[in-house]
Amino acid sequence: DADIYILFTEVESGGLKASMRSSAAVDVSRLAGQTYGGGGHARASGFRVAQFGNFQLQVLECVRVLKETVQRWKKEEAMAERPQPSLPTAPASSQAPMKEAAPKKKNGKEQTKSSATAKPSKDVVHEVSPGNTPGTGGDIVEELTKP
């Protein structure tokens, strides 16, 4: 029932060799490449460790590094699959660019509105729950007017 099987072999020339096989859940070629510079195929791969002091300790170290790498991949995949929060968008009809009104003519001359005479913009928001105070979990919102 394991996703990865590893056979560690001590080689006569020094070092150890690891041969890995996996289920479809893990790409052992990527795993061997990222951890120890090894490679191979997605379901059959391997790597070598040139030197070590103690075979058993080196095997345990290799297994620890491989497990941590697979766990990191799972966390990264989970983060990538999480839906990202998005801002609400306006309906498509309101996203079209607005056309400017043609300038009005008075006595044959064009007149334009200056920004100084334009109405102040206004953010209108109404109180959602009367009587709530900040910090109690209720929404308190006021009507705000920009000058």
Quick structural summary:
The protein contains two helices and eight strands, in the order E-E-H-E-E-H-E-E-E-E. With 147 residues, the protein is of the alpha+beta class. Strands 1-2-4-3 form a four-stranded antiparallel β-sheet.
Element order: H for helix, E for strand: EEHEEHEEEE
- Structural class of the helices, strands and pairings? alpha+beta
Strand order of the largest sheet: 1-2-4-3
Share of residues in helices: 10-25%
Walk me through the structure.
The protein has 147 residues and is α+β, with helices and mostly antiparallel strands. Helices cover 24% and strands 22% of the residues. It is built from two helices and eight strands, in the order ββαββαββββ. It has helices spanning 28-36, 55-81, and strands at residues 4-10, 16-22, 39-40, 44-49, 104-106, 109-111, 122-123, 144-145. The strands form three sheets. The protein has a four-stranded antiparallel β-sheet. A hairpin with a 3-residue loop joins β3 (39-40) and β4. α1 crosses α2. The longest helix is centred in the middle third of the chain and has 27 residues, at 55-81. Residues 122-147 have low confidence and may be disordered.
